[in-house]
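Review form for a predicted model. The reviewer records the input and the model, then writes brief findings.
Reviewer: anonymous (R2)
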Amino acid sequence: MSRDSWFLIVLAFLSTCNAGAVWLAQVSGYPLWPLVGRGEFSRYYAVWSGRATFLISAPLLLTLVASAVVLWMRPQGLPAWILWIWLILQAAVVALTFFGWAPSEVQLTTADGSLNLTAFAQLARMHWLLVALVTIYASLCWWMLGRNLLPSGPGPVQVKGWLLLLTVAFALVGVFQVWMVQTLCYKVWPHVGRSAFYDYHLAWWHSIWTVIFIPAGMTLIGILALLRWRLPQTDVRLVWAGVGLQILLGTLTGVWWGPLMGRLATRTEGLLMDRYDLLMSTHWWRVAIVTTYGLLALWMLLHTASKSGGPLKHGG
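Model under review:
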């Protein structure tokens, strides 16, 4: 592959991680804050904000640096105006992240340690703007990567190529989201409050039906579709390995993590710490499976591009 393709793949990877993170925070994070127990929010927010700085803010800043590098390189076939729009979007995302949408802990917390609902409403509104900017930016990254790798005009190679690209994109969303769930979402649960946790946990379960299950479903559909519609350069053994990982993930979710999640709390006792500890230790296996699948999908893209001699313009 060309140097341009490598840089665009890195940027697509980073932007997709960012998109997965901000969508998870907006749909399955912030809406649950009002459910945190009265007087518990200060400790809860301290854990959330410390981890979100690493999982959300730092990758956004890293993506801005990568955007500047790509703009300086000027990949062939990509007009300058779209690259400038790309950089302006990313700069707006970083400015909004560090200076615009996030109220301070003092603003968010009342004197008794509860959530300040006025400041929370401001955060929820502003964060939708961040979600929109990051999503548009990530979509542009994959569009530019497709323009770099795929032939122009309709045809079977382009259709199969976009199927591969979208499968990889949704797999990477799943990777970053599973790491965010393990290292942020689950970590704040002990700070929700005993009386509040049952309702909090139920709301969390309902919230992930869209933000996590839809990308996971698209990932499964994509890898199954590649069994039938794939580029000649795509190694079918990698596709079958991806299918196997998806089957393993679904089986373990059904027989272990799903039932364990259902027994995690009671309305009277709140979070049951022995079961929570069991979840935290065994869920690392889920993190490993999803991460392995994401890396496999990314390798499938790299392998296919390298086998085709660069852009995916050969074969039918």
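Findings: The chain has one domain: 3-307.
Further findings: The first helix runs from residue 3 to 28.
Recommendation: see findings above.
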